[in-house]
């Protein structure tokens, strides 16, 4: 039996619909592969960043503790250059004691060591304190977790911590080249590039560094108007 022209037209129409749906489906799945790749790569960079930062404390304090020989000379050299002792700053190491409280704007704790929780931003400290307070209020107890016995903050914050984390993250992402980092993040579809990386929820507690990274990802193919995907990743390392 010979097929009519109308039957051929129907088959062509069906084929075009099926092929279009197949292409849309493949592009949609491909977008999720891009998201998966971005999350994995940034998670690896984040872990390397955290492990590296955790060694800063030992490296700086061990250098400062050695007050003789070449170390004494180098300490004096860095003191002249930077106003403090420590090793030469680079993309992968910092001479700044970002883990101490000298830059933590907390009443009565402007200098010296601090044994409370140190946040990377005032907003993060306020948010954590609010959640803790709500937990204690619910149980009718006194909040001694984020407040001391006098009701004062038992936590502090430091913009230096946030800045140091970002710089170290860029170091492991692109060798410290911020322009190259922007290209990498653009390829991953991270919204606003470096500016879109939020480390402000990071903190130091009980001798451990917790780095929290928040960012938004755009889908490679977003024909269905899915918007952006909000991602939060967290890593932890003991300060040596």
Short description:
Helices cover 50% and strands 13% of the residues. With 240 residues, it is α+β, with helices and mostly antiparallel strands. It has a five-stranded mixed β-sheet.
Fold and architecture overview:
It is a single chain. A five-stranded mixed beta sheet has the order 2-1-3-4-5. It has one domain (5-238). β3 and β4 form a beta hairpin. α1 packs across α4 and α4 (159-174) packs across α5. It has helices at 5-65, 69-82, 122-139, 159-174, 178-187, and strands at 117-119, 155-157, 203-205, 208-218, 228-238. The protein is flat and about 80 Å long. With 240 residues, the protein is α+β, with helices and mostly antiparallel strands.
List the strand order in the largest sheet: 2-1-3-4-5
* The number of domains: 1
Q: Main beta sheet: strand number and arrangement? A: 5 strands, mixed
Which outline best applies?
flat
Low-confidence stretches: 66-74, 82-87, 102-111
Which percent range describes the beta-strand content?
5-15%
How do the helices and strands follow one another from N- to C-terminus?
A: HHEHEHHEEE
Number of strands: 5
Q: Rounded to an integer, what's the Rg over CA atoms?
A: 26 Å
Q: What's the helix count? A: 5
